[in-house]
Amino acid sequence: MGSEPEFDKVVLFGAGLIGGSFALALKAADQVGEVVGFGRSLSTLTLALERGIIDRIGIHAGQETADADLVLIATPVGQMPEIMARIAPYLGPETVVTDGGSTKSDVVAAAREHFGKRSGQFVPGHPIAGAENSGAAAARADLYRYRKVVLTPLPENPVLNVARVRSAWEWCGGEIFDLTPEEHDRVFAAVSHLPHLLAFALVHELAVREDSGLYFNFAASGFRDFTRIAASHPEMWRDICLANRAALLGELDRYQEQLDELRAALSQGDGAALERVFGVARAARRTWDAIS
Fold it and tell me: In the sheet that 125-127 helps form, which strands lie side by side, from edge to edge?
């Protein structure tokens, strides 16, 4: 390596797809000296060690956090409050903590509860990158390259702390955007959480039919495209849906209104109404394709 890495020590809570890819990207950029990993599964941590994602398996979370430059909590959001409570008494004065959770308002509330006056050391984040596969085996160094990463800085965050988290994600190849926690949760309820809920619901409804095999046997590319995300991690998406349930319920209501309109058009044989909806949707989808 030419120059010294920006981060001497990074601690991961969760060395799977999100945390593991973060560590691999920082290592590929030569910007981390040591990565220490924590997790619920020894087998996952062992695999992460074998793959070079982490350099050591952590034993005492507090001791490892005390002298860390950066801590990434990359677990399902439901596990984050307990981790924050564990590390809060040991948080080093220069340590910055961030997360990779898909909801932000609940995570921010937990950080303020457990970090108290030191909540300024927590900079909330959400990398908009993932896959239906999870775990250390799915981690890769290029996962975040050219992908959006949302930060939701808090009023109490020192500018330097936000800059350090921003820099870490930029080394990973991410394109950084800022939102408030409330804006984040409202937007992602519509464009991420609702689609996952719908995909899970459709696959579940077919799976519990007595003749489900008949339907899956003939399902093709349209079904595959629509339901790909139903292969995602059930525990993670349970936590996301519950954490963002207020915004998600609102989006479900709006979607139900759209379904009711389509159902009425179908029952009345109103092809013009169907075509109008399909036309607006097609134009919006093509515009999004062109700019994304």
Answer: 125-127, 148-151, 175-178
Q: pLDDT tens across 224-258, in order? A: 999 999 998 898 899 999 999 999 999 999 999 99
How does DSSP classify residue 195?
H
Tokens matching residue 130: 């993932």
pTM for the full model?
Answer: 0.90
The residue type found at 161 is: N
3-state secondary structure of 75: coil
Cα separation, 59 vs 40, whole angstroms: 12
Determine the CATH number of domain 7-179.
3.40.50.720
Q: What does the domain layout of the chain look like in residue ranges?
A: 7-179, 184-291
Give 172's contacts (C-beta < 8 A, 6+ positions apart).
21, 22, 25, 26, 29, 127, 143, 144, 145, 149
What is the domain class of 184-291 according to CATH?
mainly alpha
